[in-house]
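Morning F.,

Quick status update on the modeling queue. The single chain you submitted on Monday has been processed. Sequence for confirmation:
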Amino acid sequence: MKNLLLAASAAALAAGAAHAESHASEAKIGVMLGFTGPIESITPMMADSAELALSEINDSGAFLDGVTLAPVRADSTCVDPAAASAAAERMITSEGVIAIMGADCSGVTGAVLSNVAVPNGIPMVSPSATSPALSTAEDNGLFFRTAPSDARQGAVLAEILAEKGITEVAVTYTNNDYGKGFADAFESAFEGTVTLSSPHDDGKADYSAEIGALASAGGEALVVLGYTDQGGKGMIQASYDTGAFDTYVMGDGMFGDTLFTELADALEGSYGTIPWAEGEGADAFASITEGAGFDASSSYTRESYDAAALIALAMAAGGEATSEAVAANLMAVANAPGEPILPGELGKALEILAEGGEIDYVGASGVELIGEGEAAGSYRHYTITGGAAETVEFK
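Structure tokens below.
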């Protein structure tokens, strides 16, 4: 009898362990950003912000009966579609990620979406891919983003120039989907004269020829729609060295503390735009990231936190840690109706969803998804003073 009881106890323990293991599984989430390449100075903070949201979900102890979210990082390079696609394929086939927070730059995001995500049924939530072309990409309902399209940013930049009485500009843009789409949007909205609109390639050591052509065309300012660590920076440096332009109008890809510090003299008095938010959500994000060990005030950190949070909350709403749950429920948790959810309140959101309630995820960036692959949002108009960005207004 004693041996029989021991055997029964062992069987019960084994069954209990198996049950616990099945309810304490791990769900992997891809964090795909350009850790190398033209925006490498800002992506570490973006990744940390996304992983902060996943940690907050895990620490709540309220996610899907003990499922743990595990981030898997991959390098999008920002500029190499083939490398980005290969990295995404490895994340899915080797690591088993069920959703991707990313990618970041528009060209690689489009490549990963069409080449990897759609064929494998993997949803993507980009915090920073802003090309207007992504709004109409064939995505099978798998692509979302927390940053607004450059179709609107182009109009905002044009509006700022009109307010300043600037009627003649030259334009340089990075030679890819992001740069061309942004330049087209700006030029269609600008009511003044574009003296010359010319692409530049990233990775060059010398941009004097490109600047020479733009300087010959003339203009009251040079609009720079490039990247903070690559060609955009090189174009401003070449212009400053030759005295071609005194004022630079910058798109979101140019926002970076390193750039502003290193080219402080060249950029003094210049200005630009970046998707940004103010209000309760932004304040809550600043509060939870205070002392977190990374610069949460950097660009696209708010959107990265929100992208990761939405992935997790969509799974919770669907009751399972699957790609299908993310795709089917993300729009619902992102928008009204429901209880507004701010950064630091992800545990509260999980409890509401577990009880069958609804949430309206406001997040750090004032999330509102207005269609497939499309987000509303506000822009920070800033000016460079003493090597730092100072807020002028929000638009």
